[in-house]
Amino acid sequence: MKRTSKILFIVAAVSLICFFATRFLVGIWIPFLWIPLGFFIGSFFGALIQERQTIVNFMGMKTTKHGMNMGALIALVLVVLVVVNFLAVRHYKVWDFSGTRSNTLSDQSTKLIKALDSELLIRFFYKKGVEGNEENRKSFRELIKKYQDQSDKVKLEFVEVNERPDIAEQYGVTKGSGVIFLDYKGRRNRVEKIDEQEVTTALVKVTREKDKNIYFVVGHGEHDLNEEKEAEGLHALKQMIENNRYTVKTIATNLNAKIPDDADAVMIIGPTQKFLDYEIQGLENYLKRGGSLLLALKSKQTQGLEVLLNRVGLEPMNNYILNLVETPTGKGIQKGQTLATVFSNTSEITKVFGKNEATVFRNPMSFKRVKVPEGISIDDLIKTPENSMAFQTLEIKEEGPQGAYTLMAMAKGRYAGGDKDFELIAAGDADFLGNQLLYQSLNRDLVLNSVASLAKEQSLISVVPKETQVTKLQLTDSNFYMFLLLFAVPIPLALLGTSVTLWMRRRHA
């Protein structure tokens, strides 16, 4: 190599180093950077011109041609790998082999995500230094990745509260960490915890075009919507419904029996005074118009509403259903709370519930079917297990008839003389909606699912969290020996023999 060429290559190298060092230190492009860049380009190509004959001779060598062929092959393989990886990132398929499909979204979540026609922005607010912060961020990122796999309209953004106080103030996040919001078309909803159930419920709320109206009937001694402290109060229920973007209103049917046209659902919870005939007629007219009604009644306090139930094919039994439990001294009757563990697998309200889950009632009564009118169908939503007994009074002196009793049923179809399909849910207890029991076991999900069904919002029915199950592999003796003789022993021996054979052949080649 000529001395001039060496000097030019050194100048080119120094110029390149100066270029990158200056760019790194300044952080932005400045006109001065053209100077070292120009020195590099001029020196480098000047050196190549000086050594052009050496380069031509080098390129004509046999070893160089073989090396270039190998280099071209390596470059081709790298290009293929890059293209394959690029396509794999853009278009890929996930297979979930877990028993409960815990690694994939539910059908409901997938349907909602694919229906998005605008960008869904998910913001996760956090503070640096908070314990468990990184774990929460990682867990949430993995969850949202499942949603992003279904649609490119889902955008995730992590916002550090102290670094972006403007955005934090806009969302009202002034303290705390791990606060999550969904934004869609100007509608915003907060996610309370990191799981699919909460994210999908929030997604339904922000995609809903308008709020639904839920009317509570008052004037008959019903449970109080504004009572916060008493166990039977409905303040927690009211708050929960409003948090799900429903509008809660009240109506006194004894003053005006006509149910408003904007009522998406009507609820009557624990009345203690009798409904008059014209009120029953008003409720019937509402069902004829395709209305949705929930009756939560206590035993021996049906207050004239049994007439309405009979006309759809249900009869309240005015009894008390209690569970039989095993005690150290033998079987006993559990007073107070009654567990119901049998759920309808055909109703959208209950088919998402698991086999080992339960709803909790307080001294509920049961329903039975009577003559069901044509055009109406009955579904037993919730039943007690077989080890339950029915009593006519809570002063238990002897055992009652044992069996599985229906505590909650749904009637739907076309009411006599009506022109639209109605929905009516009858519950044999009112306390499961109260402050004390609302958030016990599955009661919250049961209530939200019932309201969603009555309001004709099937997509809002809760997604029950999936439970991870242990995958067990059990082999019989014969299967174990077959696996041992056909796979565990011969395959390693075959691989070892092939390796030794190839080594010997190459050694003596």
Output the keywords.
Glutaredoxin, 37% helix, eight-stranded mixed β-sheet, alpha/beta, elongated, 4 domains, four-stranded mixed β-sheet, 509 residues
* Portion in strands: 15-25%
Measured on Cα atoms, how large is the radius of gyration? Answer: 36 Å
Question: Total strand count, please?
Answer: 20
Query: How many helical elements?
Result: 14
Number of folding domains? Answer: 4
Distance between the termini: 41 Å
Q: What average pLDDT do the residues reach?
A: 87
Helix content class: 25-40%
The CATH architecture of the largest domain can be named as 3-Layer(aba) Sandwich
The secondary structure category is: alpha/beta
Largest sheet: 8 strands, mixed
Overall outline: elongated
Poorly predicted runs of 5 or more residues: none
Identify the CATH class of the largest domain: Alpha Beta
Q: Quick one: CATH superfamily of the largest domain?
A: Class I glutamine amidotransferase (GATase) domain
Strand order of the largest sheet: 6-5-7-8-20-19-16-13
CATH topology of the largest domain: Rossmann fold
Q: Could you please describe the fold and organization of this structure?
A:
Helix content is 37%, strand content 21%. The protein contains 14 helices and 20 strands. The chain has an eight-stranded mixed sheet with strand order 6-5-7-8-20-19-16-13, sandwiched between helices. Strand 5, helix 9 (235-243) and strand 6 (246-252) form a beta-alpha-beta unit.
Task: Give a quick summary of the entry.
With 509 residues, the protein is of the alpha/beta class. 37% of the residues lie in helices and 21% in strands.
